[in-house]
Amino acid sequence: MYVVAEYLFLENFLINFAILHITKLITRTKANSKRILMASILAALYPFVLFVPSFIFLTNFFMKILISIIIVKIAFNSKSIELFIKQLFGFYIVSFIFAGASIGIYYFLQNYSNFSMEENVFSRDFPIKYLILGIALGGILIKNVFDYYQEKIAREKELYEVTIYFDDKNISLIALLDTGNSLIEPLSKLPVFIVEYETIKELIPTDLRQGFTNKVEDLLQIQKLLEDMNKKNLIRIIPFKTIGSKKGFLLGFKPDFIEIIKNSDRIICDNLIIGIFKGKLSTDDQYKGLLSLEILNRGNIYVKEY
Question: Would you say 286 and 159 are in contact if contact means Cβ atoms under 8 Å apart?
Fold first, then answer.
């Protein structure tokens, strides 16, 4: 029996890179791609200990646990024990799902009509195509299960404390998670966080406030306002339509980032647009903004520091 080292290394590298990348996505960790690359290379070298007798001790159960801890630490470099444990368990879960999906596809597609007692079909080499199919299927399963879980949890905890940061200023408010809010800014394709004007007015540029003070609602008026302000790159026009009403426009801007507090975690998101709503979003003032599930999913999770 012989092994082509390059193929073994490349195969393990791609598999581990996929596992670490999906672990990053489901734990919403802001990780450096170079670190994931380094961890994938280390993980790809691990199978070669089988060919060095003096390194066989590295294949026992406890050493496998230790090596997986080192790989996750190199990939994500988390400073928080809580977040690190979440990443480690995510790494194991993704690995097991990939392995189970690959093995399941392999044996499901096997043809045993020509099976004989002299041939042990369970000892055949495992074809790479089944690993690829397993990773693809596992990725789809993980995404759907994770999205379902996130939506379920989010529905149970609908109110969030949000802080908006923009131009060395910040403002905090309570926002409602609106799973029906799918508003997208058409140019950047970024999700829109709708906030009441009265809550956010101290954060936005002074000259933009005149658009609300003067009740600018027509698109031509808005375009003229932007030309007068000479801030087309800062201010966004967001078209919207609600059920049973005519089309309208929101003025908006891109913040530096927002911070969403959720239990012991804080979620940081900078890929969004703030849409400014002139009116009340809640009749009892319970909340001042409307978050979308897309914004939550785009954010990176950090442990809240007290």
Answer: yes
